[in-house]
Automatic annotation (TrEMBL):
The lineage of its organism: Bacteria, Pseudomonadati, Pseudomonadota, Alphaproteobacteria, Rhodobacterales. This is Chromosome partitioning protein. PANTHER family: COBQ_COBB_MIND_PARA NUCLEOTIDE BINDING DOMAIN-CONTAINING PROTEIN (PTHR13696:SF96), P-LOOP CONTAINING NUCLEOSIDE TRIPHOSPHATE HYDROLASE (PTHR13696). Coiled coil: none annotated.
Amino acid sequence: MAHIIVVGNEKGGSGKSTTCMHVATALARMGHKVGALDLDLRQRSFGRYIENRRAFIRKEGIDLPLADYRDLPEVDQSTLAEGENAFDHRLSAAVATLEHEADFIIIDCPGSHTRLSQVAHSLADTLITPLNDSFIDFDLLARVDPDTSRVIGPSIYSEMVWHARQLRARAGLKPIDWIVVRNRLGAQQMHNKRKVGAALEQLSKRIGFRVAPGFSERVIFRELFPRGLTLLDLKDVGVENLNISNVAARQEVRDLMKELHLPGVTVNF
């Protein structure tokens, strides 16, 4: 059975699709079979990223590792059981088509609370929550005292993850391994950065997640999207001499893959 990786955050612009694409490509490059689903049925950033990659491969005639992306199948309402939710059915059917073919299934959730996102979180073996490194985004996880920066209590997103964990426990499934990834970290040890880090450390012990460094703000990530490329593909497309920023960004991808502790994965790129 495939190991399911869900990338979720109910705020947009946190780097979910970039994270999905780099994790998917890294796993494919290491020889794993990777399935991919995008639950943002309107924007489809992850889906479009993979479509751009397919188009680039065809145009350039080169061979690049590629995740097996599937759209959610449509459903005939008349075939649903009484009380069955159509979105639940579509997601279950999509996972069923991949779970015996893939080693990993990566699911990108929309930047809002939806039924699909809620169900996907309950399917997660590994949950990755990318978070921009600021208290604006930290509010997704918890409420903070404005004077002391101490955590007052979990947010509705954290409560949703807790509910997903309860559902898995009742079903006899293993617990979700939840990793909060700090994206757009500044290079300097700024006061706000330290305060966010301390708050995350405090909250992680209360509600049970691990904290991992993610991706810095780099122009290269935006430039790669139209061709469906990742930092791991640059040498394959003729970029022989990587600049310092690109080398550092590749190291960030490598460090993230190590921090995920995925089963059967040895990071070797």
